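In this section we walk through a basic example: taking a raw amino acid sequence and producing a predicted 3D structure, encoded as discrete structure tokens. The instruction is simple. Fold the sequence below.
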Amino acid sequence: MKKILVTKPALPELERVIPYFKEIWDSRVLTNSGPMHNKLETALCDYLGVKYVSLFSNATLGLMVALKVLNIKGEVITTPFSFVATAHSIIWNNSTPVFVDIEDDFNIDTNKIEDAITDKTTAIMAVHCYGMPCRVEEIEAIAKRRNLKVIYDAAHAFGVKYKDTSVLNYGDLSVLSFHATKVFNTFEGGAIVSNSLEMKTKIDKLKNFGFESEVHVSEIGINAKMNELCAAIGLVQLQDIDEVLRERKNIAHYYQQLFKGSRLVSTFKHQSLTNNSYYPVLIESEGKFNRDFVYEELRSKGIFARRYFYPLISDFSVYRIPEKSKTRDLAMAKMISDKVLCLPIYPGLEKSEQEYIFNTIVEIQTSKPKYLLSGVPINECI
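The resulting token sequence is shown next.
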């Protein structure tokens, strides 16, 4: 049986990568801010419309350094509806994640943030979930009023704009992921977007052990540098990113057409901007038929959707320890986490495969009439 995976990495033709690798072989510069690394930072600034980019070996280290460079301590308000790296980075920084609920657009509920602020709160770490921008203006107003730092986990938000500017320009820092599963990948990697040369210099020092010079270490830094091979991949990938985004947009639009007017899936309720990095639906349970049943039925037919994000970070056993984290009322997050299912979406997904996915869901529903599938908001990319 042919497998339809939830995602596949976009890759350029190998022949286009070889000249870049040859340059690396000829130069013998493999890491430590080599030519490819520096070219990619410049190219990303230009493409994304941001001031400064600091490349990282992965986004988790980017989050950790972002917290460190802003001197974040005490409590950090964040979302439970994310990948564990969001909260892990806070704990690795010896701070305490405070989980607050989300809205029906999957992002942190700004109405709940202020109630969670205490005299120990130093920052907000929000996530642009599935590439949909948070309510950045409301978050920044709260942060300014309460003297808090704002870090955006922008792992999903490559190329996303808000009010004609990159969403990465909001907050004190934004952290991108270039993991293989992301819209833009360097096999593995990430970046911190900052707004001043002074901040970029501090970030770059921390990701390189804290070296001030060859003989002077001024910070307790870490090794989080991106190597030249990953940077070279990124330079080639960037040449294709517009086509990748267009194809994702077309795939999302065809899903929209397939499910339009169906009682199984409702279409977009929120008009945010996204890069179509994911295509989630919510499955309403009735009787024994629930999201997990549909998930298993799809798998049995070769469709590997993903329960993303399930369980909530706050439901993992390591986060149930009181001294590790704090949890507010998470009613919306729990509801969505129990119902969410991300359908396959990636460049190269054929319309016939989308039709197979749709028809399989219809088949499951009609053979088991006691459950209802309803859609959740996804919006087209810019």
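Looking at the output, two observations stand out. The first helix runs from residue 14 to 27. Residues 4-237 form a domain with the Aspartate Aminotransferase; domain 2 fold (CATH 3.40.640.10). In the next section we compare this with other chains.
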